[in-house]
Design a protein that fits this description.
The chain is mainly β. It contains no helices and 11 strands. A hairpin with a 4-residue loop joins strand 7 and strand 8. It is globular.
């Protein structure tokens, strides 16, 4: 069983920045890829960004150029730096990890962007 713990959410004004963290209980060498997703009540969970074990990244078009995903393998932690935030970025943000073919989710952290 792998546990993921997100932190760093909060309330920020439009144009501001936040950095989310996701700490994993598994070692980095066992994690194939880590993703960030977000979800607004009443809507499907939306994929935001991915980083592979080798460091390859990809982003949803809605956040490309504003968000940056990174990982610290020594700390078993993945980050999501969010800049130029917009009200439409308001959501609960979740990280997930693919560990030996199994997918694990964190509990989520709320991000609220005020206009």
């Amino acid at each position: 069983q792998v546990q993921l713990v997100e932190s760093g959410g909060g309330l920020v004004q439009a144009g501001g920045s936040l950095r989310l963290s996701c700490s994993a209980s598994a070692s980095a060498s066992s994690i194939n890829a880590m993703n960030w997703y977000r979800q607004v009540p009443g809507k499907l969970r939306e994929w935001v960004a991915v980083i592979t074990r080798g460091g390859t990244t990809n982003y949803a078009d809605s956040v490309r150029g504003r968000f940056t995903i990174s990982r610290d393998n020594a700390a078993n932690t993945v980050y999501l730096q969010m800049n130029s935030l917009k009200p439409e970025d308001t959501a609960v943000y979740y990280c997930n990890a693919n560990v030996r073919g199994l997918v694990y989710w964190g509990q989520g952290t709320q991000v609220t962007v005020s206009s």
